[in-house]
Amino acid sequence: MSKLDQALDADDLMILAERIEQLAADDAEWVARLFQELLRARAHEGELLAGQASGGQQQEGGEREFDEQLAQVALDTAEWLRTLWEVGYMGAGNFRSQPRSAFPAIDLEDVRKSSLFARIRQGKHALPFPPPTRQGLPWHELVEGGTGTQLVSAEIVRDEVGLPMGAIIEGCSEWQVLEEGTAKQECVVQHQGKGPRFRLRLLAAESAELHREPPSLTREIHLQGRGGFNSYTLEWPLENGHTQFVALRAATWERAQSEAEHWLAITHPELYGQVRFVAAEN
Questions:
Q1: DSSP assignment of the chain
Q2: Are 87 and 130 contacting, i.e. CB atoms less than 8 angstroms apart?
Q3: pTM over 0.85
Q4: Would you list the DSSP string of 139-155?
Q5: Buried b (16+ CB within 10 A) or exposed e, 73-83
Q6: Are 195 and 133 in contact (CB under 8 A)?
Q7: What are the distances in angstroms from CA 121 to CA 44, 105, 145, 146?
Q8: Which has the closest alpha carbon to 243: 233, 258, 257?
Q9: What are the tens digits of pLDDT across the range 134-163?
Protein backbone atom coordinates (compact mmCIF):
# COMPACT_ATOMS: atom_id res chain seq x y z
CA MET A 1 0.00 0.00 0.00
CA SER A 2 1.46 3.38 -1.06
CA LYS A 3 1.49 6.45 1.18
CA LEU A 4 -1.29 7.99 -0.92
CA ASP A 5 -3.58 5.08 0.05
CA GLN A 6 -2.86 5.41 3.78
CA ALA A 7 -4.97 7.56 6.10
CA LEU A 8 -3.20 10.60 7.59
CA ASP A 9 -2.50 10.30 11.29
CA ALA A 10 -2.42 13.14 13.83
CA ASP A 11 1.27 13.89 13.23
CA ASP A 12 0.73 14.17 9.48
CA LEU A 13 -2.13 16.61 10.01
CA MET A 14 0.02 18.77 12.32
CA ILE A 15 2.79 18.91 9.70
CA LEU A 16 0.29 19.94 7.02
CA ALA A 17 -1.09 22.70 9.25
CA GLU A 18 2.44 24.08 9.79
CA ARG A 19 3.23 24.00 6.06
CA ILE A 20 -0.01 25.84 5.25
CA GLU A 21 1.15 28.71 7.46
CA GLN A 22 4.31 28.98 5.32
CA LEU A 23 2.39 29.41 2.04
CA ALA A 24 1.82 32.71 0.30
CA ALA A 25 -1.24 34.60 1.52
CA ASP A 26 -3.32 33.96 -1.62
CA ASP A 27 -2.61 30.22 -1.58
CA ALA A 28 -2.81 29.89 2.21
CA GLU A 29 -6.42 31.14 2.28
CA TRP A 30 -7.95 28.54 -0.02
CA VAL A 31 -5.68 25.71 1.20
CA ALA A 32 -6.62 26.49 4.82
CA ARG A 33 -10.34 26.31 3.95
CA LEU A 34 -9.79 22.99 2.21
CA PHE A 35 -7.82 21.72 5.21
CA GLN A 36 -10.61 22.74 7.62
CA GLU A 37 -13.12 20.89 5.47
CA LEU A 38 -10.84 17.85 5.62
CA LEU A 39 -10.77 18.03 9.43
CA ARG A 40 -14.59 18.32 9.61
CA ALA A 41 -14.95 15.29 7.32
CA ARG A 42 -12.48 13.33 9.45
CA ALA A 43 -14.38 14.27 12.66
CA HIS A 44 -17.72 13.33 11.09
CA GLU A 45 -16.31 9.98 10.00
CA GLY A 46 -15.13 9.32 13.55
CA GLU A 47 -18.58 10.11 14.95
CA LEU A 48 -20.22 7.75 12.47
CA LEU A 49 -17.83 4.93 13.32
CA ALA A 50 -18.32 5.48 17.05
CA GLY A 51 -22.10 5.51 16.61
CA GLN A 52 -22.04 2.28 14.64
CA ALA A 53 -19.89 0.58 17.27
CA SER A 54 -22.15 1.78 20.09
CA GLY A 55 -25.28 0.82 18.18
CA GLY A 56 -23.88 -2.61 17.46
CA GLN A 57 -23.18 -3.20 21.14
CA GLN A 58 -26.64 -1.99 22.12
CA GLN A 59 -28.25 -4.15 19.45
CA GLU A 60 -26.24 -7.16 20.56
CA GLY A 61 -27.20 -6.55 24.18
CA GLY A 62 -30.82 -5.99 23.16
CA GLU A 63 -30.84 -9.23 21.19
CA ARG A 64 -29.44 -11.10 24.19
CA GLU A 65 -32.05 -9.53 26.47
CA PHE A 66 -34.80 -10.27 23.96
CA ASP A 67 -33.60 -13.84 23.57
CA GLU A 68 -33.66 -14.25 27.36
CA GLN A 69 -37.19 -12.84 27.48
CA LEU A 70 -38.30 -15.23 24.76
CA ALA A 71 -36.67 -18.12 26.59
CA GLN A 72 -38.47 -17.19 29.82
CA VAL A 73 -41.80 -16.87 28.01
CA ALA A 74 -41.23 -20.31 26.48
CA LEU A 75 -40.45 -21.80 29.90
CA ASP A 76 -43.49 -20.13 31.47
CA THR A 77 -45.70 -21.35 28.63
CA ALA A 78 -44.42 -24.90 29.09
CA GLU A 79 -45.17 -24.70 32.83
CA TRP A 80 -48.64 -23.32 32.08
CA LEU A 81 -49.49 -26.11 29.63
CA ARG A 82 -48.04 -28.76 31.96
CA THR A 83 -50.22 -27.50 34.81
CA LEU A 84 -53.30 -27.40 32.59
CA TRP A 85 -52.66 -30.98 31.54
CA GLU A 86 -51.59 -32.58 34.82
CA VAL A 87 -53.62 -30.61 37.36
CA GLY A 88 -56.71 -29.87 35.29
CA TYR A 89 -56.62 -26.10 35.72
CA MET A 90 -59.39 -25.46 33.22
CA GLY A 91 -61.71 -23.12 35.07
CA ALA A 92 -65.30 -24.27 35.30
CA GLY A 93 -64.63 -27.95 36.00
CA ASN A 94 -64.01 -29.26 32.49
CA PHE A 95 -60.98 -31.28 31.44
CA ARG A 96 -60.58 -33.08 34.76
CA SER A 97 -61.19 -36.73 33.91
CA GLN A 98 -58.38 -39.25 33.47
CA PRO A 99 -56.94 -40.43 31.22
CA ARG A 100 -56.65 -37.49 28.87
CA SER A 101 -55.99 -38.34 25.25
CA ALA A 102 -56.12 -34.96 23.48
CA PHE A 103 -55.22 -31.47 24.59
CA PRO A 104 -57.85 -28.80 23.81
CA ALA A 105 -57.12 -26.02 21.35
CA ILE A 106 -55.83 -22.81 22.94
CA ASP A 107 -55.97 -19.47 21.17
CA LEU A 108 -54.54 -16.04 21.94
CA GLU A 109 -57.59 -14.98 23.93
CA ASP A 110 -57.09 -17.93 26.30
CA VAL A 111 -53.52 -16.77 26.94
CA ARG A 112 -54.59 -13.18 27.57
CA LYS A 113 -57.36 -14.13 30.01
CA SER A 114 -55.54 -16.91 31.86
CA SER A 115 -54.89 -15.91 35.47
CA LEU A 116 -52.73 -19.03 35.80
CA PHE A 117 -50.44 -17.92 32.96
CA ALA A 118 -50.26 -14.40 34.44
CA ARG A 119 -49.38 -15.92 37.80
CA ILE A 120 -46.55 -18.01 36.32
CA ARG A 121 -45.22 -14.98 34.38
CA GLN A 122 -45.01 -13.13 37.72
CA GLY A 123 -42.68 -15.82 39.04
CA LYS A 124 -45.21 -17.34 41.44
CA HIS A 125 -45.68 -21.04 42.07
CA ALA A 126 -48.62 -22.67 40.34
CA LEU A 127 -50.90 -24.37 42.86
CA PRO A 128 -50.67 -28.17 42.49
CA PHE A 129 -54.48 -28.34 42.65
CA PRO A 130 -57.16 -26.28 40.92
CA PRO A 131 -58.43 -23.31 42.94
CA PRO A 132 -62.15 -22.58 43.20
CA THR A 133 -63.65 -20.59 40.38
CA ARG A 134 -65.66 -17.41 40.36
CA GLN A 135 -68.06 -17.27 37.43
CA GLY A 136 -65.86 -19.77 35.59
CA LEU A 137 -62.49 -18.08 36.21
CA PRO A 138 -59.82 -19.33 38.68
CA TRP A 139 -60.17 -17.55 42.02
CA HIS A 140 -56.58 -17.43 43.31
CA GLU A 141 -57.22 -14.37 45.45
CA LEU A 142 -59.65 -16.29 47.63
CA VAL A 143 -57.19 -19.13 48.28
CA GLU A 144 -54.16 -16.93 48.91
CA GLY A 145 -55.75 -13.80 50.35
CA GLY A 146 -56.18 -12.81 53.96
CA THR A 147 -58.98 -13.53 56.40
CA GLY A 148 -61.36 -10.92 55.02
CA THR A 149 -65.03 -11.47 54.24
CA GLN A 150 -66.36 -11.83 50.70
CA LEU A 151 -69.95 -11.11 49.70
CA VAL A 152 -70.91 -13.95 47.35
CA SER A 153 -73.85 -15.64 45.70
CA ALA A 154 -74.26 -19.08 47.27
CA GLU A 155 -76.67 -21.87 48.08
CA ILE A 156 -76.51 -25.18 49.93
CA VAL A 157 -77.47 -28.29 47.95
CA ARG A 158 -79.35 -30.83 50.10
CA ASP A 159 -80.56 -34.38 49.68
CA GLU A 160 -84.13 -35.59 50.12
CA VAL A 161 -83.85 -35.63 53.93
CA GLY A 162 -82.31 -32.17 54.13
CA LEU A 163 -78.68 -33.13 54.73
CA PRO A 164 -76.11 -30.94 52.95
CA MET A 165 -74.54 -32.54 49.87
CA GLY A 166 -72.39 -29.57 48.92
CA ALA A 167 -72.45 -25.87 48.18
CA ILE A 168 -72.53 -23.75 45.04
CA ILE A 169 -70.54 -20.55 45.52
CA GLU A 170 -70.16 -18.01 42.71
CA GLY A 171 -71.21 -20.65 40.18
CA CYS A 172 -68.67 -23.24 41.40
CA SER A 173 -70.38 -26.47 42.49
CA GLU A 174 -67.32 -28.26 43.88
CA TRP A 175 -67.48 -26.97 47.44
CA GLN A 176 -67.78 -29.54 50.22
CA VAL A 177 -69.72 -28.87 53.41
CA LEU A 178 -67.61 -30.01 56.38
CA GLU A 179 -69.73 -28.71 59.25
CA GLU A 180 -73.15 -27.12 59.57
CA GLY A 181 -74.73 -25.16 62.37
CA THR A 182 -78.01 -26.20 63.97
CA ALA A 183 -79.86 -23.28 62.39
CA LYS A 184 -78.68 -24.38 58.92
CA GLN A 185 -77.72 -20.81 58.09
CA GLU A 186 -73.99 -21.20 58.63
CA CYS A 187 -71.50 -23.90 57.65
CA VAL A 188 -67.79 -24.58 57.11
CA VAL A 189 -66.85 -25.34 53.50
CA GLN A 190 -63.73 -26.37 51.60
CA HIS A 191 -63.14 -26.57 47.85
CA GLN A 192 -62.64 -30.20 46.73
CA GLY A 193 -61.29 -31.04 50.19
CA LYS A 194 -58.14 -28.98 49.54
CA GLY A 195 -56.94 -25.55 50.54
CA PRO A 196 -58.25 -23.17 53.20
CA ARG A 197 -61.52 -23.65 55.04
CA PHE A 198 -64.19 -20.97 54.91
CA ARG A 199 -67.23 -20.14 56.99
CA LEU A 200 -70.28 -19.57 54.79
CA ARG A 201 -73.07 -17.51 56.35
CA LEU A 202 -76.27 -17.46 54.29
CA LEU A 203 -78.14 -14.19 53.93
CA ALA A 204 -81.28 -13.39 51.94
CA ALA A 205 -81.96 -14.06 48.24
CA GLU A 206 -79.09 -16.52 47.59
CA SER A 207 -76.47 -14.08 48.88
CA ALA A 208 -73.98 -15.00 51.57
CA GLU A 209 -70.82 -14.00 53.39
CA LEU A 210 -67.72 -16.11 52.88
CA HIS A 211 -65.09 -15.71 55.60
CA ARG A 212 -61.77 -17.51 55.64
CA GLU A 213 -61.11 -19.48 58.81
CA PRO A 214 -57.87 -18.60 60.64
CA PRO A 215 -55.07 -21.22 60.70
CA SER A 216 -55.72 -23.96 63.22
CA LEU A 217 -52.18 -25.42 63.22
CA THR A 218 -48.77 -23.93 63.98
CA ARG A 219 -45.46 -25.22 62.64
CA GLU A 220 -41.93 -23.98 63.32
CA ILE A 221 -39.26 -22.92 60.84
CA HIS A 222 -35.67 -23.08 62.09
CA LEU A 223 -33.00 -20.58 61.06
CA GLN A 224 -29.38 -21.70 60.84
CA GLY A 225 -26.47 -19.38 60.07
CA ARG A 226 -23.19 -20.70 58.69
CA GLY A 227 -20.35 -18.66 57.24
CA GLY A 228 -22.50 -15.59 56.85
CA PHE A 229 -25.28 -17.47 55.03
CA ASN A 230 -28.73 -18.29 56.41
CA SER A 231 -30.65 -21.50 55.79
CA TYR A 232 -34.18 -22.40 56.83
CA THR A 233 -35.67 -25.77 57.79
CA LEU A 234 -39.32 -26.63 58.39
CA GLU A 235 -40.07 -28.93 61.32
CA TRP A 236 -43.04 -31.19 60.51
CA PRO A 237 -44.37 -33.84 62.95
CA LEU A 238 -45.35 -37.18 61.42
CA GLU A 239 -48.23 -39.45 62.39
CA ASN A 240 -45.83 -42.14 63.67
CA GLY A 241 -44.42 -39.75 66.25
CA HIS A 242 -41.26 -38.97 64.33
CA THR A 243 -40.31 -35.54 63.03
CA GLN A 244 -39.51 -34.60 59.44
CA PHE A 245 -37.14 -31.72 58.75
CA VAL A 246 -37.70 -30.12 55.35
CA ALA A 247 -34.92 -27.96 53.90
CA LEU A 248 -36.37 -24.79 52.39
CA ARG A 249 -34.70 -23.10 49.42
CA ALA A 250 -34.74 -19.62 50.87
CA ALA A 251 -32.37 -16.88 51.97
CA THR A 252 -34.97 -14.67 53.68
CA TRP A 253 -37.77 -15.28 56.15
CA GLU A 254 -40.44 -14.20 53.64
CA ARG A 255 -39.13 -16.64 51.04
CA ALA A 256 -38.93 -19.39 53.66
CA GLN A 257 -42.62 -18.93 54.46
CA SER A 258 -43.47 -19.01 50.75
CA GLU A 259 -41.46 -22.20 50.21
CA ALA A 260 -43.07 -23.81 53.26
CA GLU A 261 -46.53 -22.97 51.87
CA HIS A 262 -45.57 -24.46 48.50
CA TRP A 263 -44.29 -27.66 50.14
CA LEU A 264 -47.52 -27.89 52.14
CA ALA A 265 -49.63 -27.46 48.99
CA ILE A 266 -47.79 -30.37 47.33
CA THR A 267 -47.57 -32.80 50.23
CA HIS A 268 -50.65 -31.92 52.32
CA PRO A 269 -53.10 -30.03 50.08
CA GLU A 270 -55.92 -30.69 52.56
CA LEU A 271 -54.05 -28.49 55.09
CA TYR A 272 -52.96 -25.73 52.72
CA GLY A 273 -53.88 -22.34 54.15
CA GLN A 274 -54.60 -23.82 57.58
CA VAL A 275 -51.07 -23.72 59.00
CA ARG A 276 -49.34 -20.73 60.56
CA PHE A 277 -45.54 -20.78 60.26
CA VAL A 278 -43.51 -19.23 63.07
CA ALA A 279 -39.81 -18.82 63.73
CA ALA A 280 -38.44 -21.44 66.12
CA GLU A 281 -36.89 -20.18 69.33
CA ASN A 282 -33.47 -21.81 69.24
A1: --GGGSPP-HHHHHHHHHHHHTS-HHHHHHHHHHHHHHHHHHHHHHHHHHHHHHHHHHHHHHHHHHHHHHHHHHHHHHHHHHHHHHH---SSS-S-SSS--SPPP--HHHHHH-HHHHHHHTTPPPPSSPPPEETTEE-HHHHHS-S-EEEEEEEEEE-TTS-EEEEEETTEEEEEEEEE-TTSSEEEEEETT-S-EEEEEE-STTEEEEEEPPP-EEEEEEEEEETTEEEEEEEEE-TTS-EEEEEE--SSHHHHHHHHHHHHHHH-GGGTTSEEEEE---
A2: yes
A3: no
A4: -HHHHHS-S-EEEEEEE
A5: eeebeebbeeb
A6: no
A7: 46, 21, 19, 23
A8: 233
A9: 988 888 888 887 767 889 999 999 999 989
The 10 Å CB-count burial string (b at 16+, else e) for 125-154 is: ebbbbbbbbbeeebbbebbbeeeeebebeb
Alpha carbons 234 and 248: distance in angstroms, whole number: 7
**pLDDT tens-digit series, residues 72-93:** 677 677 777 767 667 665 443 4
What's the pLDDT tens digit per position in 184-227?
889 999 999 999 999 999 988 789 999 999 999 999 999 987 65
Please state, in angstroms and as integers, the Cα–Cα distance from residue 79 to each residue in 100, 147, 170, 269, 275, following that order: 18, 30, 28, 20, 27
